[in-house]
Automatic annotation (TrEMBL):
It comes from Superficieibacter electus. It comes from the Bacteria. This is Phosphoenolpyruvate--protein phosphotransferase. It is found in: Cytoplasm. The gene is ptsP. Belongs to the PEP-utilizing enzyme family.
Length: 325
């Protein structure tokens, strides 16, 4: 039976009618990588690099980071690995950065917003990722981006760091696809502009849900409202995918939504290109995907976007039977 499971894990993530939907893993450390691949991950869709910075006295240096990133790329054995640059500050404070406590950390000083002040820290991370990138298929992703200026600044820093590595004669990835997390709703209105500057998009549905509805993701009193399966969220998803595809860019989801079997028909129907989830969710998602017909799912997604309530969408989903193989 273990052999059967391993064989099933190795199958490509395709729907019944052969539509591709890459299934990748979210990981928080290099140690998690081999387990994720043995569960059938086709890549790492989100490496939460901030974990390397937490619970310690000072930031990891370039060499330590390089080794961690290289380890993941070697475990990936040519499969893609998306390194998200540090998503710290705000609710993930680091004592050594001395950022004062905030009343509203989720709306505060975090992720890409802190990089200009801590530019050395950011450059060190870019150096480590670029150097590790020479050992595999690495991609770079920036969290919490909301304006084009932020990504232009990042690209300028990347150029600087590349020039520096070049002049030092160090090995580094010559080309490294660059993407952004789509987790701040305003980004949805300027996806076309971002398409001119980045290679891919990954929707952070955890933060996107809280920001789209103004519902705190950690407040139990509003948790019934914290639901990404509503007409507004689905229409937003649809718009992001359609604009990105028109410009030849791919779109994934790396929030919890991506690993929910219940919602897989909808996400396939929305024509997403990749779903990234915690490793243990991968086998069930891949096996369900193999039972789904992408045309039927597309119709389901169209119908869901016309629903007037979350309950109506749930009813549609409950009535939707996967095809049998
Ligand atoms: C998200 O916001 O959906 C996401 C994947 O990032 P995190 O949960 O680490 O904020
Ligand atoms: Mg997030």
């Amino acid at each position: 039976q273990a052999r059967q499971q391993a064989q099933a894990a190795a199958l490509p993530a395709l729907s019944l009618d052969g539509k591709r939907l890459e299934v990748a893993a979210n990981i928080g450390s290099a140690l998690e990588a081999p387990g994720a691949f043995s569960l059938g991950a086709e890549g790492v869709g989100l490496f939460r690099s901030e974990m390397l910075y937490m619970d310690r006295e000072r930031a990891p240096d370039e060499q330590e980071q390089f080794e961690a990133y290289q380890q993941v790329l070697l475990a990936a054995n040519g499969k893609p690995v998306i390194f998200r640059t540090m998503d710290i500050g705000g609710d993930k404070p680091l004592p050594y950065l001395n950022i004062p406590q905030e009343e509203n950390p989720f709306l505060g000083y975090r992720a890409v917003r802190i990089y200009p002040e801590f530019a050395d820290l950011f450059r060190t991370q870019l150096r480590a990722i670029l150097r590790a990138g020479a050992f595999g298929n690495a991609l770079l992703m920036i969290p919490m981006v909301h304006s084009l200026d932020q990504i232009l600044w990042v690209k300028q820093e990347l150029e600087r760091v590349r020039a520096q590595l070049q002049s030092q004669g160090l090995r580094y990835a010559a080309s490294l696809p660059l993407g952004i997390m789509v987790e701040v709703p305003s980004v949805c209105y300027i996806i076309d502009h971002f398409c001119d500057e980045v290679d891919f998009f990954s929707i952070g549905s955890n933060d996107m849900t809280q920001y789209l509805y103004a519902v705190d993701r950690n407040n139990p009193r509003v948790s019934p409202l914290y639901n990404p399966i509503t007409p507004s969220f689905l229409r937003m998803l649809r718009q992001i995918v359609s604009v990105a595809h028109r410009h030849g860019k791919w779109v994934g989801i790396c929030g919890e939504l991506g690993g929910e079997p219940r919602y897989l028909p909808l996400l396939l129907g929305m024509e997403l290109d990749e779903l990234s989830m915690s490793g243990p969710r991968i086998p069930a998602i891949k096996s369900l995907l193999r039972q789904l017909d992408s045309q039927a799912c597309r119709q389901l997604a169209d119908n869901a976007c016309e629903c007037r309530s979350a309950d109506d969408i749930e009813t549609l989903l409950a009535d939707f039977a996967p095809q049998e193989d």
